[in-house]
Amino acid sequence: MGLFSFKSNRSIGIDLGTANTLVYSKKHKKIVLNEPSVVAVERETRKVLAVGNEAKEMLGKTPDSIVAVRPLSEGVIADYDITEAMIKYFIKKIFGTYRFFMPEIMICVPIDVTGVEKRAVLEAAISAGAKKAYLIEEARAAALGSGMDIAAPEGNLIIDIGGGSTDVAVISLGGTVVSKTIRIAGNNFDADIIKYVKKTYNLLIGEKTAEEIKMKIGTALPLEEEETMEVKGRDLIMGLPKTVVISSEEVREAIKDSLNEILQAVKSVLEKTPPELASDIVDKGMIMTGGGSLIRNFPEMISKHTNLKVSLAENPLESVVMGAGLALDQIEILRKIEKAER
Q1: Cα 52 from Cα 284, distance rounded (Å)
Q2: What are the DSSP calls for 317-330, one per residue?
Q3: Using CA atoms, how far apart are residues 203 and 216, in angstroms rounded to an integer?
């Protein structure tokens, strides 16, 4: 028995995100790894040079012979080999080369992932050294990790805004009743900001700078007192470095369309929700999670347009991977749900 409990202790939950990959260890009951989903490879040989934090440092700064790749794009696997190399690297980083007891892995996938993609993720995990690999939909994992009782016969609405995609889902009795995935999320906000600064100031800024602007002064509703920030970049006309000052109102203007698309996705899910479950949502409201939900006043904005209570999950960046960890204890329940859904 002791052997078995040790073995099952090595289970981990993985949230393969477009922006970051998080790993939750069941044994330690906490997140043991949180690194960017970036891999630096040699252009010619496709040899992996660095993964995670080290590779992110190289973004936008590499010589031509090295490329920094994000193997997941818009919440889907864009490059299988590199994704597999990344999973392998992270597993090895946690467990070392001690290969006697292989871990069981629960991996989060987007709601609309195809059968082929599911198989590819499972194969990547097995060839990366997992004894068994299971999949769980991100929205379901996010709901579990946000403290929702997803097995209860009542409607729970979750809005999970990641780096590459946003999942909106109504979950009841453990199953997904209505859902919608859109390829608009945190990375789009960054791209919107880059585009706006380029158009308004003829200034070229990088992804890192855009992300910093979003986090520091981004807002979904007008602020009582505007905030400003100095932004450095390259002047497109003169070709020289230049600094401009940008305000929170300008950032809101820049990301407005993307915010609205997420709002429309929420509305379309609400429109398709069966009346019994809709009344539960009126009582309980909805929960927002994922890094993209951290934009200031975003929950308030959705609440304003839907007249429903919207709350932010306790730790939005971690609820998906925490849910994957919790799901390891509910594998039988998840299997039943999957059979029913097929």
Answers
A1: 38
A2: TTHHHHHHHHHGGG
A3: 19
Determine contact, residues 22/31, Cβ cutoff 8 Å: yes
Backbone φ and ψ for 306, nearest 5 degrees, come out as -115, -10
- Measure the CA–CA gap between 269 and 276, rounded to whole angstroms: 14
Partners of 6 in beta bridges: none
User: Region 143-171: what's the mean pLDDT?
Assistant: 91
Contacts of 209 (CB under 8 A, 6+ apart): 231, 232, 233
Question: pLDDT tens for residues 47-96?
Answer: 888 899 888 887 777 778 888 888 888 777 788 888 888 888 888 888 77
As a 3-state breakdown, the chain gives helix, strand, coil percent values, each rounded to 5, of: 45, 25, 30
- As given in the structure block, the two tokens for residue 55 are 């590779």
H-helix or E-strand spanning residue 66: strand 66-69
Give me the pLDDT at residue 192, please. 97
Helices (H) and strands (E) in the chain, counts: 12, 18
Instruction: Give CA–CA dist 319/15, Å, rounded.
Output: 10
Confidence of residue 340 (pLDDT cuts 50, 70, 90): low
Does residue 125 or residue 184 have the better pLDDT? 184
Q: Are 217 and 238 in contact (CB under 8 A)?
A: no
Beta carbons within 10 angstroms of residue 76's beta carbon? 18
Residue position matching structure tokens 């995609």? 165
Distances (CA, A) of 195 to 204, 250, 285: 9, 12, 34
- Residue 77 three-state SS: strand
The closest alpha carbon to 49, from 34, 33, 69, belongs to 69
Confidence category of residue 117, pLDDT binned at 50, 70, 90: confident
**118 within 8 A of 49, measured Cβ to Cβ:** no
- Gap between the Cα atoms of 8 and 25, Å rounded: 11
Q: Which of 92, 74, 78, 81 is nearest to 35 (CA)?
A: 92
Nearest CA-CA partner of 61 in 38, 79, 44: 38
